[in-house]
Every structure is written in structure tokens, then in C-alpha cells.
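Review form for a predicted model. The reviewer records the input and the model, then writes brief findings.
Reviewer: anonymous (R2)
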Amino acid sequence: MKTKNKGIILLFLVAIIWGGGFPAVRFALDTGITPFYLITFRFSIAAIAILLVTYKRIKPHLRSHLIPGVIL
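Model under review:
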């Protein structure tokens, strides 16, 4: 697949996910979830996704940087 086509497809996918977030947030807030819990849930999912994607690059620095950062 050409780089240009791949970029267009990924950009379209990001737009769909971003646009789909608005009805999802509205539905979640209408069902009684507080904004604090909603933001906590969204950031937790994002952190797990980033960790899964970048784990091999993060692993050598885990003890020296990440663990003290989490403690702070």
C-alpha cells in the first residue's frame, strides 16, 4: 500500500473515532456516569493503549524513569 493511501485511510479512521466519541460521551453522561469517572476511564484506556504500542521501547527505561514518575 502506498504511503499516501495509508495516511488517508488512517486519517479517516481517526476522524471516525474522534467523531464517534461525542455521542458516546453524551450517552455516558446521560446514563449517570460523572464527568470525573468518564475522564478517568478515557485516560486509562489511552494509557493502556499507548503502553501496549510502545512497550518494547519503554521496557529498558521502566525502572529508572517510569516507576519513580508514577510514584511522584
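Findings: Helices lie at 3-30, 35-58, 62-71.
Further findings: The radius of gyration is 17 Å.
Recommendation: see findings above.
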